[in-house]
Amino acid sequence: MTTSSNAEPVRTTTDADSLGVLGLQDVTPADAKEPAASRDGRADRIFTAAALLAGGFLTGAIATFLHRARFDAGFGPVWLGIVASLLVITLLAVGIRLYLRERIYVTSFAAGVIVAVVALAMLTFGHSAIILADLVSTIWAAGAPLLVSLIAAWPRLPERRERYSEHQSTISKEAQS
Fold first, then answer.
1. 48-97, pLDDT tens digit by residue?
2. pTM, whole model, 2 decimals?
3. Which ranges does the record mark as transmembrane (predicted)?
């Protein structure tokens, strides 16, 4: 202990003391049931999956409302809404699948899209339907859930380095023969 100018004892803390006060002290494996890193990783995964579920629902709801957008080109209606909606849903799902690699994330996104399409396909209390009983709406109601489900179920592709090393080993085996 040291004294300050007011003659009051001032306690100096060590790094270990300050870490203990903050709850950041090292935990020995015998004391911990699971490492803090895995708990943090699990929380991140749950949060990311929940965010993608909400994002899938929002994307599916917006695309459901916009799937019937069209314009008259003189020779008949051009249905850009269905094409754009299916393209957006597909590209987002493929992007999530390729970027995040784990299937849980794209499955969460797919579940959000499917829930949005199914919820908006039902008749409401006033008997108004957002998804009508015509060809364009049928393509949307069946196509969007089918596309995101297929993307979510697609098997995991090996890493590029793994494919390259397999290719190199095949070439070297052929060269040895």
1. 999 999 999 999 999 988 888 888 888 888 888 899 999 999 999 999 99
2. 0.65
3. 46-66, 78-100, 109-133, 139-157
Nearest to 52 by CA among 117, 116, 107, 102: 107
Alpha helices in 67-159 (DSSP H): 80-100, 103-121, 135-153
Q: Is 109 domain-assigned?
A: yes
Give, in order, the Cα–Cα distances in Å from 96 to each of 26, 34, 54, 106, 111: 36, 29, 14, 6, 13
Q: Specify burial of residue 107 (Cβ count, 10 A radius: 0-12, 13-18, 19+).
A: buried
Q: What is the pLDDT of residues 10-22, one digit of tens each?
A: 555 555 555 555 4
Asked if the structure places residue 14 within a domain, the reply is no
CA distances (Å), origin 107, targets 45, 84, 111, 154, 161: 13, 21, 6, 11, 26
**Is residue 101 one of the residues assigned to a domain?**
yes
Tell me which residue range forms the domain holding 120: 37-154
- Report the C-alpha gap between 173 and 177 in whole angstroms: 6
Structural domain contains residue 110: yes
